[in-house]
Amino acid sequence: MTKLPSAPVLDACCGGRMFWFDPTDPRAVFLDARREEHVLTDNTRRPGSRVLRIDPDLQADFTHLPFADGQFALVAFDPPHLVRAGKNSWLAKKYGILGTHWRDDLARGFRECFRVLRPEGTLVFKWNETHIPLSQIIPLSPVAPLFGNRCGKSQLSHWLVFLNASAPSLSSPSSPSFPS
Question: Could you tell me the pTM of the whole model?
Fold first, then answer.
């Protein structure tokens, strides 16, 4: 099902839509570079497996978003965060893997997300520091984050919130510091 272009929200790397309360929310356009399905062994569930389905509304790369400038009020950006994982590993299937040019890819992704975001629109960014610290990611964004938090058992996952500027150019952001 293709969403109407008037949907106010874009999930630029939807994957399995794991953090959505309603993974079919009609207010969002779900985009991902992959379209695939995997049956994963899971002995905690009957029948001993579960299905991982990556089925975006539109299949495209977050570095080249197929949308007009300023189209969305909110963009969710949860790109792959792993640089090392076996090609057929569960983690690679679930989260995807960054390529060797990950800095350039993420910088282009941030620029594209801000391009399709309305002036004063909100970007919500999710990152996990398992392989790359957040301090290496923030400088890749043309906009400084407003606030964020750490979460998860090991405090390696971060949610950051950015406000798109109404002016076309912004100064380089500084790395955020998080309250203890």
Answer: 0.85
